Amino acid sequence: MRKPYMRIPFTGVLAAPTIIPESAKALSGAVAALEEFLVAPSSSSPLSGTQPSTVVLTGAGISVASGLADYRGAKGTYRVNKTYRPIYYHEFLNNNEARKRYWARSFLGWTTLYKAKPNASHFAIKHLNDLGLVRSVITQNVDSFHSQAHPNLHTIELHGYLRSCVCTSCHEELPRDDFQGELARLNPTWAAFLREILASGALDTENPDERRARGIKTNPDGDIDLPGAPYTTFRYPACPRCLASPPPTADGTRATVEVDSDGAWIPTSTAGILKPAVVMFGESIHHTVKAVAEKMVDDADRLLVLGTIKKKPIAIVNIGGVRGEDVFRVDLDPNQHGSQGIRVEIPTDELLPTLVKQLRSSNAQNIHEAPDYIMKIQGASTFKDMLS
């Protein structure tokens, strides 16, 4: 049987970006260019006083200031951990040992991810929405920070979310923190080791060199690798719904869901496998999620790309190069100041709050803004209702 085709992540170092306009090399110039980008009239809303609609697209770089690892940043996994290889969807489904390895590493990394909070960039996006400048968000991130920082701003989590697990058979969801408790119960030795490394502060440092010195490799999405660890001893639970009522198979018979004396899933089972509620490498984005995200982009006047083609104005804010960005600047007027598009290389947690401050001071209207708070999100967002 032929192996499924896989998209291999690009891990090379991209060329340094060309900053547009030239003045955007400095924070003040970048803020001025972004302000012009956001408020300049668009072809679809040319009337004075009509706010153009902007969709924000975010990637892993926006969450670095929250203490999370990214892929391509200066201290990203692809730079400091050259041997890193993500698990692929077909491996997770078909290989029990691969699942043990995945859940053991996720078990060690979940505490850090669970404790992390949205940063100034996420709240600045909320304020841009309060000011009427941002209509919606499409995020590639799975950390739920957008949903926590601005729950009332329409947000599509393109690649899912780590706050839940989902059954590959019945599609029932289980809160990830509840699942963590089950993993600890089934793996008391691993749980004791996690308490030990947490007490030692080994997971508190964000310096990859310090972590490697302690025998720990930290990767994005709560993945912690311990070279030489006995991953094969790790156990994980079965889907409780499938265990109580095994789902039907394609031929009409009932699937088998079996557990050991402690409740851990065993390989004689043919269903009841829980996976993170994310789109894994090699897995397809749900067609409805993809269609809604594409419509959001098509209907918007402009696109603000943060931390991660030229039919509408685009602003890219990213540290380091972006694949295909040479196409982005082909038709730009070299004398424009931001209305047609910009390219900035300044951290979002520094740039966006400064932009919000500038927009507030230059806006003559009294804008009502709700205070910042973090919404605790469990399970699917309200967007899940659109998938049923």
From TrEMBL:
The active site is at H159 (proton acceptor). Zn(2+) binds at C167, C170, C239, C242. It holds the Pfam family SIR2. Keywords: Metal-binding, NAD, Transferase, Zinc. GO terms for molecular function: histone deacetylase activity, NAD-dependent; metal ion binding; NAD+ binding. Residues 32-362 form the Deacetylase sirtuin-type domain. PANTHER family: NAD-DEPENDENT PROTEIN DEACYLASE SIRTUIN-5, MITOCHONDRIAL-RELATED. Belongs to the sirtuin family. Class I subfamily. This is Deacetylase sirtuin-type domain-containing protein. It comes from Xylaria grammica.
